[in-house]
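Predict the 3D structure for this chain.
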Amino acid sequence: MAKSLFNYVDMGMIETYDVGSMPFFGDFKKFSEGSAKFASYLLDIYGNRSESSAAYFERKVVDAFIGKLRAGINIPNYPQFRDMTRMFLEMMDGVEKIGGSYIETKLLSPKTGKLDIPEVLALKWNSKNIYEIFHSTFRVKICITGPYTLSSLFAYKDPELYSRIGGFLAETVKENIFNNKYGKVELLALDEPTFGLIDDPMMDVGSTGRENLLHAWEKIFHKAQEKGVRTCLHLHSTVDKLFWEVDSLKIIESHVNDSLYSSNKTKELLELKDKFLKASISYSNFDVLIRKKVLYDSAGKTGDVTQVIGNVWRKIRSNKINPTVFLENVELMKRRLLKIIDMFGLERIPYAGPECGLRGFPTGRSAIECLKRVSETVKIVNAYLLDK
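Done. Predicted structure below.
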């Protein structure tokens, strides 16, 4: 029986996963066309597979996933190159885009009759090939854009919209979880970056919208749990505490500087609700990384920091500066992780990783280097904890 890659969780050790997105380099139009054609491409055994846009899409996804595994990430998210909202809205029949917003035209249903996420399907289809590279089973994290974030793009919404989108997403989760002898889906993350960031009357305590969103989250996560998959919620703000009430949610994550990681109330609620944290140990906003280094290097000097940052980007794009010089180092990530463990206890921190996706990184190499440093950090901390 093949062993699983770095399967430490059951041993009380920390594992790594990434949020999902990566910078794309190549022909994005061809990639996007290939994503739409990928399911039918798999059925076409007579077509010119090597030259098709679907083959291009497949190669890009699989190569990026293998790159994450080689960087040492234990449970990589499928590589998310496409827009996180459009890729799910485009799966829905009954939705029409007018201007910059969407409207419902009829009951939401799968546009093609199926709910396959092309990126997940590509990994499932290539399971054996990925297995043979590492001689070990691999694990996948699936990220689904949540009903609150998707609903924010609709021109008109009522309190039932969360339920309608939630039902669609629950079926999407059900259809995309796979488990074969080469690899399996281990984590399901719901991505809600807009939740808690605006004053939304539909989220008022006691409102129908708030209750419907809670039930939608519950339904989505329950579908994953039925398949034996761990559940995670990705947030950019934890000011609104509704997520603590989701029984089927087990893992919560937010950004590095979120009060989630420093609050005694978090510790109390983790125990009370039997939930866990993914420790976010590195910044993912490259502008922030540049700003931090520029401010550090220019301490005591005067000048327009914004202009300096602009000059840095121009030098990166012209290959005059290696962007990896702006990445946070392992020592800093280690201090963050140990601080979180000290605050909440190792038993409540099963995972660590970057705070968000890496799409804004200037190069694929710099994104992979970030993942390598995250992986190295966790290995060092795990070794330290074993020696204690």
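Residues 1-10 have pLDDT under 50 and may be disordered.
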